[in-house]
Amino acid sequence: MSVMSPSRSVCLSLFLCLATAFGLAQQSAAPAIQPPSPEPALTPRPSGTPTPIAAEGRIHLDVVVNDKAGNPVSGLDLNDFTLLDNNQPSKIRSFHAVGGPDQKPGQVVQAILVLDAANAAVTGVAREREEIDIFLRRDSGHLPLPISIFLFTDAGMKMVAQPSMDGNALAAQLDQAEPGLRAITRATGSNGAIERLQLSLNALTSLVTAESRKPGRKLLIWVGAGWPLLNGPNIQSSPKGYDEMFNAIVHLSGSLREARIALYNVSLGLPGARTFLYQDFLKGAKSARQVSLGDLSEKVFAIESGGRVLGPSNDLAGELATCVRDAFPYYTLSFDPPRPEKPDEYHDLKVQIGKPRLTARTSTGYYDQP
């Protein structure tokens, strides 16, 4: 099953802008870059078009509270929570604790595993598949929540296994899936990097759109180091390029929250290995003038959605188990955003817990609309 959606227009527009308005200032002229065939022509999101917050304007958040050891905490009530919007207290309009002793039937949480074969070497993908297999077969294959599996290659996003709590069956289905070797290689230079960035953002956006139609909370676990970010002295920008990047960020960050998706990134590698310093880009892209390619990082989207970045680690199976542990318990709350002065007005969000040694994770910001 391939995931397709009109929302992919946002990312396709970004790709075309990176290929033209952003440009490639190479020593020699780079060949023209075309969107991957046979993709349909798509219409980009116009600048300033609001991304809906919610039907009634109220913003809803899923919040995971962890103790010092990283374990989710149950048993908290409304009085333990303080919500800050741009560092100002905001009234919590609704509150509900989910999980623990008060868990009710029908409260759906699922995990979605995405194996990224488009941005990894063949040997890395093979090791990741082995680690996923170990994770799925733990505890005799009895999983704590339904898990589905997708394989992302340069041909697109393909579902490998429907949601199931039978880890052995999921492992068998993954084992039968085509390996998905990457056809876009480093030999294609910046052109290939741009195409992989576009493919990756298209894949994430279309998957988020498809999952938004399904009820419940989702843990979207992206297995792999992530897509390239095209940083370097040979990459130049234009005002149009910044506008398109900002529009894509506004759309995707809002879509993740509305779909109730927390994005997680796990990757193989030596512990402590040098990686992209995503922490430098966690303040939120407040306008097109302040946007950077680093704001498009998968790891940045993960933290900003209330998820986590784990690894690099040689125990990827253990990292997957850590992600799934965030499923229960959790808390839902809502608040009414203030009236903004302009479209896409960025607001920083923080949830504080009034008990020692407890921390909360949720969406770190939102774009308010008139």
Your description of this structure?
There is one protein chain. The protein is α/β, with parallel strands linked by helices. It is 27% helix and 25% strand. It contains seven helices and 14 strands. A six-stranded mixed β-sheet has the order 7-6-5-8-9-10, sandwiched between helices. Helix 1 packs antiparallel against helix 4 (189-212), helix 2 runs antiparallel to helix 3 (167-176) and helix 4 runs parallel beside helix 5 (239-258). The chain starts with 7 loop residues before the first helix and ends with a strand.
Layout of SSEs?
Layout: H1 8-22, E1 59-66, E2 81-85, E3 88-89, E4 94-98, E5 109-116, H2 122-137, E6 142-153, E7 156-166, H3 167-176, H4 189-212, E8 217-223, H5 239-258, E9 261-268, H6 298-304, E10 309-313, H7 316-324, E11 330-335, E12 345-353, E13 359-361, E14 365-368
Parallel strand pairs: 5-6, 5-8, 8-9, 9-10
Antiparallel strand pairs: 1-11, 1-13, 2-3, 2-12, 4-11, 6-7, 12-14
User: Any guess at the CATH architecture?
Assistant: 3-Layer(aba) Sandwich
The CATH superfamily is von Willebrand factor, type A domain
Question: What coarse outline follows from CA principal-axis ratios?
Answer: globular
The ordered H/E elements are HEEEEEHEEHHEHEHEHEEEE
Protein structure class: alpha/beta
**The level-1 CATH class:** Alpha Beta
Q: Which percent range describes the beta-strand content? A: 25-35%
Strand order of the largest sheet: 7-6-5-8-9-10
Rg over CA atoms: 20 Å
* SS summary, helix count: 7
Low-confidence stretches: 1-17, 19-55
- What kind of sheet is the major sheet? 6 strands, mixed
